[in-house]
Design goal:
32% of the residues lie in helices and 19% in strands. By secondary structure, the protein is of the alpha/beta class. The longest helix is centred in the first third of the chain and has 16 residues, at 17-32. InterPro entries: Aldolase_TIM, TIM_sf, Triosephosphate_isomerase.
């Protein structure tokens, strides 16, 4: 079985929630036209809820760009898998 190509990107420490909304609104119609390729964006935690909500009924995959390996603890600034 052939693997389906994927075009994916993360945003590093860029985009406010408003910027993420604007970017996602522009991305969704373009991604709908992408044939034969999956499109994914892996965004900062601060934008994940909103981008995920916007992409929910689209072909775009939204995910977290990183997470910490511990489930909980005194790890300032980290996001665990259960928090996602």
């Amino acid at each position: 079985m052939a693997r389906r190509p994927m075009m994916a990107a993360n945003w590093k420490m860029n985009k406010t929630v408003t910027e993420a909304q604007n970017y996602t609104a522009a991305l969704l119609p373009r991604a709908a036209d992408a044939e034969g390729v999956d499109v994914a964006v892996f965004v900062p935690f601060t934008c994940l809820h909103e981008v995920g909500r916007m992409a929910e009924d689209s072909s775009v995959i939204a995910g977290a760009q990183n997470f910490y390996y511990e489930d909980s603890g005194a790890f300032t600034g980290e996001i665990s898998v259960p928090m996602l």
